[in-house]
Structures are given as structure tokens and as C-alpha cells.
Amino acid sequence: MTNTKSNSSITRQGALASVRPGVYESGQWVAESASGAVDITIAITQNLNLQQITFWQESAAVLNQQLQTHLGLSIPEPLKTQHAHGATLLRLEPFKCWLVGGSKTADALSSLLSLDIEAASVLDLSHARTHISISGQPAADLLNRHLAIDLREKSFLAHSVASTVFDHVGTTLYRSENKNGAPHYELLLPRTFALSLWEQLLTSASASRTTITHQ
Amino acid sequence: MSAKRLHSGGIINRSVPITFYWDDMPFTAYEGDTLAAALLANQQTLVARSFKYHRPRGIMSAGVEESGALVTIGSGAKATPNTTATTQEIFEGLHAYGQNAYPHVRFDVGEVSNLFGRFFAAGFYYKTFMGIPPLEWGAQWGTKIWMWYEKLIRRAAGMGEASRLPDPDSYEHQHAFCDVLVVGSGIAGLTAAITAAENGLDVLLVEQDFEWGGALLSHADISQRVELINKAESLRVRMMKRTTAFGLYENGCAGLLERVSEHLSQPPATMPRQRVWQVQAGYTIVASGSLERGFAFGNNDRPGVMTANAAQHYLNRFGVLVGQNIVIATNNDSVYATAIALQQAGAAVSIVDARADIGLELHQTASDYGIALYLGNMVGNACGRAHVNEVELAMPYANSANAASESDNEQKTNGIVPCSLYGTRLPCDSLLVSGGWSPVVHLLSQRGIKPVWDSARACFVPPAAHYPELKLSAAGAVNGLWDSDDCIQSGREAGLAAVLAAQQAAANGSNIAHAKIKSKVAGRGWQTPIAPLYEVQIVKRPKKSFVDFQHDVTSDDVRLAQREGFVSVEHLKRYTTLGMATDQGKMGNVVGLAQMAAAAGKPIDEVGTTTFRPPYTPISIGALAGRQVGSHFRPLRRTPLHSWNEARGAVMTMAGLWHRPWYYAREGESISDAYRREAKTVRECVGLCDVTSLGKIAIVGVDATELLNRLYANAFAKLPIGKARYGVMLRDDGIVMDDGTTWRLSEHEYFMTTTTANAAKVMAWMEECLQTRWNELRVHVSSVSDQWAGVAIAGPQSQKVLQQCLTNAADVDNERCPFMAVINTTINAASQKIPCRIARISFSGERAYEIYIPSDFAVAVMDVLWAAVEAAGGCLYGLEALGTMRIEKGHVTAAELDGRVTIEDAGLGKMASVKKSYIGSALKNRPELLKEDRPRLVGIFPKQRAQTFRTGALLCTPDNVKGQGIGWITAVTHSEVVGHWIGIGYVAGGHEAWAGKTLVAADLLRNSHVEVEMVSPHMFDPFGERMHD
Known about the structure:
The structure holds 2 protein chains of 2 kinds. By secondary structure, chain A is an alpha+beta fold.
């Protein structure tokens, strides 16, 4: 099986590489030292590692064992996530998971790639998506400007994942554990739409004081 | 004209005076005023002109039902016409203007049209279509004159004038979710919200006004209102003011319009003007209240005529007394409290009550407060020109003629009461009317609940208060409840219904007794029943009486429509435009229906009401568009090389949602110069093109080969690993769906490319096939269009140039990389090895390679490739040059594969396998699809080589240049290598059928005809020697 995972020493230029880090408020960039509490923090992930793992019902146990061994993860319930050692496993479809990030994923991938193709297959999507994380108390409101997902605490708990649309573009949203006591969401945007969607998100965020970083 | 601001009273903030401008004249108001209240307080009572007749109009209500005081707010790009002054919140510097008048509403030359009113009766516009005999009589003249006066009519029509400048405001959308949505913050709505919140539900309460309370705002005592609001807030009810629920839709979906910054003098630049909310509610409670309506009588549109409740509202909310000498015309009890309040505020009040008997208690109360009563009387005519100054009283005509009893008469006439003026006149400066109350059933009607006529209350009401199957309840006055205690009880019941529904949902549908909720609160009604009264019809001295003020629909118009056969209420509406203005008939509908019922001799319930549709109140188009305007009209899809291309002078064009380089103009070059140069350079040397937009699909699994073999018309079972193959996919009906190449990367792994246009369609098609037809196949398909950036390097020098960039140049030598070979290799960039996939395939017809690079490395690789291409004397080329080269070669795109074409039509019939079954293989052999004279792909040359012709032109025989022709042209370009303009298209029978003959490329729209000849679609290098090398 072909794995396009590339030499990590090469500088990658993501779709949002040109976005400047800083503090954005009332439609303009302000000095980071300017007074005012930060409402929302948006972190743009550089060098995203995203692997799609597809499998079949009868091979789930084998895959589970591999994931447990190498990542300390097991296949989550549908539309749920599991997180360990910096890697998050999203179950998007009955037999499709996405593995996001993580320092141990390289070992895991070699192991998974060695599995018989009848059991599972791995597809590198690291360049296909742009990952941003959004945290802060108004984060749900900001996301609901664009996403028709019920993000209330009781409806979209931590470790939930949803496939939805952002301005008619297929998008994946999942929720991590709260960050500094505030909700923390993660978005995976199709790379070629990412800048267009980012522009919309930033416009909506201008009502808040938003800190933008690259991670 | 003696409305005035009282020294005390109301809930306005008198400590914050505000300057606003009416027709550029400055006036003072207070924070908390509406524009209507402020205009009244400043004695500005003539504030508008009517639609057809330009009659003077004043303020008629205090809410969204306003039909008179329509004004324009702001100017220039921010001008918003047809704003109801009764809902416009005042703010510092507000500029409001009268509209539909010249030079201004106080003196309008257009009023002359009132003199010709008899020519503007119902449907007059439609009648003009028939012409004006004898000028247009007969077929010879047709409607020539109509074409002339239609322009005049159009110029005169319309209310206000929308700005033609771009809307400078921003709008946005928001999604929200709640357990219970409560619409309306009156006593019932607040009670319902509190009841639901007390039981742990997440409640969203919306109110269209900028103050909470609904009808409570008309009360002098604010304690109950304050108490309820405080309680709702303490229970963490989410409360949204200035927010109108404009539509209820299926499955608990509601559309809300929030006016975010319209009330601010200088809103922050980032604040939207309006926000449309799409709310998903577990349960919805409609507590939308009811609206007081008037009735039709002579000159009932005079400034100074308004609803009685509005006068009470202006008094108790804004501290504005609408007149000093007030006459109230009514048929029900509700005005008596208003009369007392106005009397106590210093006005002299008279009540003209259509009922002869109002009961002792009311009679005594009126007497105690010194209110003059005229029982059994009606107001027949409002006198005065710019403002009402007296009213003429009328009595039922039948009474005076034959002494029939009033009740008999009313019963016969169904509330349309023929009367005569008998000489009594009452001077007044304000005429308040109340013909009863109409529940606001609009939102319920939108959910399919058909209101029923309640003859006791003389109004349409919902048939029940609770609709468990719709997860919907109606609370308060919308049910026809006029008593506060009844409304509280109704609100509580609705709140409990929501709680029970939530419990039921939590219990997974087990049937929790809904019987605990009363089906409907009965309601106590009034002391003396309402006497139906919809029109005081003056006999012998008919006066113009209005039903729909906004569209100047009169009582006579309704009867005329009925006489002309528009007997359905829906036809009446459309013929007269009754209820079609911005107020959507909130005040006039019931009156019009009653008049129609009377004219038809039917009871009102048989006539019924029209269906209410969203929006309940007008919405800016901008609000519906939200942020999807300008560059965000649709999401923009950029290739990873977008900026790189722009930096090198690419002029972009839209290809679906993609922005693709169209051409790379050098200084002084036109698009024509540029694409010809680019195509020539590729043919002679080498060119580089961003082809990222092609669809890319990863196909993985042990049955991947079988899947492809079933999808494609040509064979894929034996495609070797490391090879690519061009494939054509058919639909079930045998028509071509898409084409592209598929690369075999390993035994069970393929990489498919699709056309840019059909990338999503093909992906969805494959998923559908796997999930619904062949779920036994062990294959996973995934879109990898975003994962890979694509670059084509084409031209005689392409191999040499590419070899300079690869880590191992031998990877693309002829032996290892022959035509249609696929390799995985690396490109050297910045001393690194960047992985890539390369296939030696060609769309241009030249030796060419398609290179796919992980997207984040695209720029680094492109820098390397371009440096080599540039050094070799090559160029970047865009979509236009690519189009030229593919036309020269007769290669098809979505322009040719347009959903009508078979594989034979497209000249690809030899590819179709006869040894296997595949999608479309059966139906492609239908006799109709096998006819020899079907349009077939052809190349097209102009007969006179210097001439050109147009894409989209029809191909016709010279003796029959009309109709749909015998073919069509799909693409045209100028070919440097062929030496003249060429085209590609379809013609009946293909080019062989027209060898040596001349056809006409007919552009019938532009009347441009060019003689052409049909040639093979392979107009350049027909045997592919260049690309096979």
C-alpha cells in the first residue's frame, strides 16, 4: 500500500500558512499587549498528521488490538472520539476512522500498514484537511454562525464528533476536553476551501477578542 | 391635531432626550420612543401617502400591523423604505422621510389621482391588458398602446423607493437550539417560558418589540410585567428582544430575524444590521397575541383614525395622549378601559357603540367617568381633509326604513350593516376604532393548522391549543382569550405541555398522559358579547371606505371582485391585492373576508381565510443572504498554487467553485494574444499548467478492480500495476456520465481522476453503488482531491525538463515511463526529496506528464518545475490555452459530455467493451441511441478561413437556417497550429455524412451566420504521434 507520508524535515505550506498570528478584535488586528480579556483562541495546526483508517466489521477486533498496542486507543463508538498520547481517533462512519496527530502514530502506522488489506487500510490525508482548534466561552456561538450543530453542553459532549457543513462545504467537527475551563472544539476543513472558510470565520469572530496562533 | 406628550407617565427614559429628523426637520423624542410615538408627540400626524390614491395617511396602530405610517428610514445606500413608524425605535440622529409623495407628504401633487379613483378599481391593471376600445380593438392593433401606458403604470406603482446602491450593511446567520421556543413575551408567553424553565427546560423566549411585555406594555401598572420578566431572567430563560419569529417550519425549526443594530445611532462597524436565526426547538409555544382591527366606514383612513388599543399603548408606554377630544367607535367591551384611561389623562371621550345594550355595569362605569355614550350608533363617516375633525354618526338603514330590529339586521348582513347618516356630528381630533380582535394565527397557519371561525368572538382562532404531534402549543390571546387570568392559565398549560413532551421524549416515547393538559382554556369573554361589525355601509351617500389601507383596497373593490367571479378567497386576494402588502392583511383581512361572505351570501366560516406564509413581517433580502455576499457569495476553492499563480500574473476564472488560472498575460497582451502564445509554446517547446482541480479518488480494497470493471464501459480487469488507463463511465440509461484516467498503484489500490465538473458527482455515484447495489464488494473509496496538487507539464521538451527536477532522472525515460505509465518518485526541492506520483498522460496531445504532489509541497515543487521550464524557454499556460489544445485534439470535456451524449456520439464507441456487463451497458443499446443520424462529435472549420463563429451556435443546412438545426457547437478557439479558427461540436450523422458539404453556424440570437464545413474532431496530430513520441 502506498503511503505518501513525507519527509518531515521539508517545510510544508498549509492553506492557512499566510494567516498572521495575533489578536483580532472589532475587525482589526490589535497589539497583543492591548487590554482586554481574550474571548476566543484559534490555533491553526501546521504539519497536520491525519490518517484515515478503514476496516470491516469482522476485522474490527484485529484493528482494535493494533491500536491498543501502539497508541493505547480502541475504536470509539460511532461519532465519538478517543484521545491518548496526543493522538485523537475519530470514528466518522461505521468502518471509517480518522487518526489526528500524535507522536506515536508513525509506529502505529507501520503496524497498521502491515495488516492485510482485507482487515484494514490506511490512507494519508495529512494534506487534504486544514485543522484549527477553537476554544473559549463564545466558541460555540462563533461556530453556530456557520454550523447547524447543537453544541449545547448536554448535546455535544467532549469526545463527540460530527460531519457537518460549513457554508455548504463538508466539514468535520469534534470536541475535546475543556481548555482552561472553556469549551474546546476542533475543525477539519477541506484544504482547498480552508482559506475561504477561514475568511468567513474570522469575520464572524470580529465581534469577539480573538487570539490566533499557529501550532 | 392636538396629540401631545404628557408631563409624566410611560416607560420612556425622559432623562435621555433624543433629536431625530422628520423630512429633515429636527424634533425631540425620548429614549424608548418609537418613531410613531415621537411623531405624535410632535403633532406630526400626516406622515404618509397611500399607494394608489395618494390619500393622506396617519398613524393607525402601535405595532407591526401598521398600514398607514410607512416611512423611509435613512438615505442614500442606507435608505430603507416601507418601514413601519410604529416599530422603528428612535435613536439619536434618526432621519425619517415621508414617501410616495411629491414634493412631500403634507402636500402631494399625486393626490390628483384620488379624483380618478373610479378608474383604479380592483384589477384595473389586469384590465389594461385588454386594451382600451376602440383604440386597440381587434387583433390588428393588439396591445400596442398598452406597451406605452404600461410604462406609465409601472412608474407610478410601488411604495417607497429602494436604494440602487450596494447595501453597505452586513448581515449574518446563526443557528441555535433549545428545548422550548416561546414566541411572544406577553403575559401568556412569559408564563409559559417560566413554567417550562421551572421544570428544568432550556427556554428561548423571543419578542419582536424592543421591550418585554406584549399587551402588558399598554397597562399603566408595570408591576406584573416587571415581576414576570425578573422571574424569567432568574430562571435563566434565554431572552431575545428585537427578534421576530417570521416563520415556523417542520420538525421544530423556526426562522427568527434579530434587529441587531438598527436602533443604534453609530453601531460598531463589525456589528451586523440584522441576524437571521435558524432555531431548532424541541417544543414551540406560540404566544403571539391578537391585534385589534377596525371596520370599514366612510373615509376611515383619515389621519387621526387609529385603533383604540394603540391610543392606550401610546398613553401608557410613551406618555403620549393622541387627542384632546376623542371619539371611540366600537362594537365590543375592550375599549372601555381605554376610554377611562384617556379620560383620566385629560381628554374628553365619547364612545359610539354599535350595540344598543352594553349592560348596566359598563354603562354605569362610563357614566361615572363622564364618558358620553352613543349606543346603537355607528360612525359612518370621518370628516376632515388632512386630519379628522368630526365624525358623522349613522344608524342601521333598516331601522329607520322599516323598524326591523338591529339584531335581525346584523344577522342578515353578517356584520355588513347598511346605514344612513342621520345628521348627528361629533367634533373630535382623534377617532379611535375597535371592530374586535384578530388572533395572530399566522405562525400556526404556517404549520398547517387551519384557523376556524369563532362566531362568538368574531375572529379566526386555532381549533385547539395543543398539537402534540407537531410539538406545538398556542398560548394566550392567540386562542381568542381576552382576559389576563385566562391568558396566564393558558400560558401555564402550554408550558406544561412542553414539559410533558420533553418527558415523553426522554422516556423514549412511552405515553405520558397528555390528558393532564386541558385541550383549551375556555375563556371568559366580555360582559356583553361583541356585535359583529365589519362595515358601516352608507346607503345613498356612499363614501370611500378602506379594507386594506396599504394597497388602497376598498369595500367596493371587494364586492366588484366578487361580482366579476373571483369567489374564492385566494382569488379575491390576488385580484384585489387585499392582504398582499407589507402588513400582509393583519388589519384588513377579516373585514375583507366578511364583506366577501356577505356579498356571496355565505357565512364567514364557509369563505375561510387565506393561508399565511412566511415571513410574518418583512425581511431584508440582505438578511437572507447573510455573509454569503461579494467574494463569499459562494465558497471559493483555491488550489495550493493559487497565490503562486497570481504572483506570476495569472488571470483567474471560475470553474465551478474553483478559481483556476485562465491565462498568464504578459505586458500588452490581450487574452487572445496570451492563450495563442501559450498554446504555441506548449506545442513547440514546453508548458506548465495547474491541474489541481481535477477530481481525485482513492479506491482501495480487494474488490477494487471488480468495482472499476463494473463502473467503466471499457475493460479494467487487466490493467497492469504501474499503468494508467483512460476510462468512460456511463449512467444507467447508457448516457455518458464522466471520463478520466485511473491509475493502478498496487494490486488493490487505484487512483482515479475525474473531470473538474463531475468530481463530487462521481464520488457520490461510487458510494451509492457500493452502499446500495454492490455492498458485497470490499472496497473503500475516498476523495483525495484536496490531498494532491496536480501539475501538467506538456510539450516536446517536457521529458527533458522534468528529468532535471527528479531525484532520479531515469524514472521518466521512455523505457521506464512509456505512454500511460505511472511511477512514484521524488522531486528535488530545496535539497529535499519531495514525494510525487507521475503518469505519462496527455490532455494537450503533446508528450506530457501529470504530476501529483502532496498539497503542502505544491509550491516548493512548482518553484523547481517552473525554473526548469522557464530556462527551457517554456511558459505557464492556463485554462484557455488548455482548451485550445484539447479542441485541436478533439478531446471531450463537460461541455461535450452534457448528459445527452452516448459513448458512440462522443466518438469513443470503440472503447466500450462487448465482453463484460457494466453500468449502462444494457440501455446504451436502445434503438434510439443506436441511430446512425444521431449527432456525433465533429470538428468544425469556417468555410472562409479568416472567419470565426460562436460557441453555442446551431449547425443548420443552408436552406433551413431556423429552429434547432441539425447540430450545435460546444467550443471554439483560434488554433495557431491549424492556422485559423476551429470548433468542436455535434452534428447529425457525424462529419462523414457532411463531407464536402457546407453547413451554417447560426447564432440566431445575434443574427450572425457563418458557413462552415465538418471535419474529423481530431484536427491536429490525428494519430497521436506527438504524445506517444
